[in-house]
Design goal:
Helix content is about 30%, strand content about 25%. The chain contains 14 helices and 24 strands. Bound molecules: ligand EPZ.
Length: about 425
């Protein structure tokens, strides 16, 4: 079993270039199913979730050439199966992103029902309701969802109950091949959705309004393969910005490879907290915070504060000079991270969807466990300024979404290492 061991107290300097966005790359990979032939994706992060999505596509008959560490040539010409098997969906819920493209290309899909995860139930009822409106019929048996559109897909207006990222993406990817025009109302607006719509339009789709609450898709008969660059990972960038705010040396650190506009609310909240983040040509430069002001935060769909930055923000808030509340509105169970941070000395009380935070003077290094990929990364970041050593376990979570995380921190001057330790329950 590997852990990440962090020695607190070392100042950061220099620059870090973030990788391509996990939450875009996975959907772009799924979308290659819609365009028979070889689509090349560049700036793809080399992370375990991408490897799992590659397995899902290869199981269906696609071939994937790793052109270089960050470029994949995906050939979906020979895809002749439309099943996302249980063992892969259970490993990565985002495998359900193949449902829309499979329906768009083949008119059917067999997807293992996603189990819950440690963030909550993670249902796909909104995906199903929306696809049914397009003419898809569903039935479930033995833990699998069988989707089929015997009459083909026909465009219509779908109003989402909640601006679900995954439901918006599946509906876009199915409707690009529907008969007629589809309108998705109350669509999610995340930058990763805009990236997906941009690639589909490059493939020949006719999508307008991506990034706004109303997306319109005019169905087309075919899509052709393209080469597309994945946008930079705004959440990875936000994670390193927090690291800089806590541990940067006198020159600050630069975080590049992403668009600051994709972190608007995050940068606004951090500014209110007293964190000095200046825009540069390549990204941002962040300086160590001289004092952190307490600011309440609510996680909301984009352009609201992203839930994927909730844990990282809590690391800052728990050191603020005063009390603040972080409210988690997206997932029903995303405060497990708080309990781990309390082990490092934070003063946080959870009441339902609210974390009541009272700032403390500092953290003490401790053994902690990653609850999910963002929480795991946030614990390592807290370790950068904790007194003594912090050992983060269950780091497979971090490997899902952070490429070369330890190497990037070390390149900034952090004293961080990945250490193999015997599994505690092995006798
Ligand atoms: C995407 O998940 C991201 N994952 C998540 O990032 C991110 O936290 C989330 O969007 C919100 O921004 C990927 O893109 C692979 P949702 P997704 O559909 O699509 C409920 C990370 O750390 N819901 O917007 O699953 C759902 O249970 C991950 O990279 C339904 O109830 O998010 C959740 O509580 C974590 N029914 C909420 O809505 C549905 O049909 C938001 O889900 C769909 C969703």
């Amino acid at each position: 079993m590997d852990i990440i061991r962090v020695e607190g107290g070392h100042a950061l300097a220099g620059a870090v270039h973030v990788s391509g966005a996990k939450n875009s790359a996975l959907k772009l990979m799924a979308a290659t199913l819609l365009a028979p032939g070889v689509t090349t994706l560049t700036n793809v992060p080399n992370i375990s979730d991408v490897h799992v999505m590659g397995k899902v596509l290869k199981r269906m008959g696609a071939t994937i050439e790793v052109v270089d560490e960050h470029s994949l040539a995906i050939d979906t010409s020979a895809v002749d199966s439309w099943e996302a098997p249980y063992e892969l969906v259970a490993k990565m819920r985002a495998s359900t992103a193949v449902m829309g493209p499979l329906l768009g290309r083949f008119g059917c899909a067999k997807i293992a029902m996603p189990g819950g995860c440690n963030l909550g139930a993670r249902k796909i009822d909104m995906h199903i309701l929306g696809l049914e409106a397009l003419g898809v019929e569903f039935d479930t048996d033995h833990g699998y969802i069988h989707a089929s559109a015997p009459q083909g897909l026909s465009g219509t207006t779908v109003t989402l109950e909640f601006a679900s990222v995954g439901a918006t993406e599946n509906l876009i990817m199915a409707s690009v091949r529907a008969e007629g025009t589809t309108v998705i109302d109350n669509a999610a607006r995340e930058p990763e959705i805009v990236d997906l719509a941009n690639m589909l339009n490059e493939m020949g789709a006719r999508i307008t309004g991506a990034g706004t609450p109303v997306v319109q898709i005019e169905g087309v008969d075919e899509l052709h393969p393209v080469t597309h660059r994945v946008i930079g990972d705004r959440i990875e960038a936000g994670t390193f910005i927090v690291a800089g705010a806590l541990a940067a040396g006198p020159e600050g650190i630069e975080v590049t490879g992403f668009s600051p506009a994709h972190l608007g609310m995050v940068l606004k909240k951090f500014e209110l907290m007293g964190i000095d983040v200046e825009r540069t040509d390549e990204g941002v430069r962040v300086h160590r915070a001289r004092g952190i002001r307490p600011v309440d935060i609510q996680t909301l769909p984009f352009p609201g504060f992203p839930t994927d930055m909730q844990a990282q923000a809590m690391v800052l808030s728990a050191l603020a000079e005063g009390s603040s509340v972080i409210t988690e509105n997206i997932f029903e169970n995303r405060f497990m991270f708080a309990s781990e941070l309390v082990r490092m000395g934070a003063d946080i009380r959870i009441e339902g969807h609210h974390a009541m935070i009272h700032g403390v003077d500092g953290y003490s290094g401790a053994q902690v466990t990653s609850p999910d990929l963002r929480g795991g990364a946030a614990l390592a970041v807290a370790g950068l300024i904790a007194e003594g050593y912090t050992e983060v376990s269950a780091i497979h979570h971090i490997d899902r979404g952070y490429e070369h995380f330890v190497e990037k921190l070390c390149a900034l001057g952090a004293h961080v290492e990945r250490v193999a330790v015997p599994d505690p329950i092995d006798d």
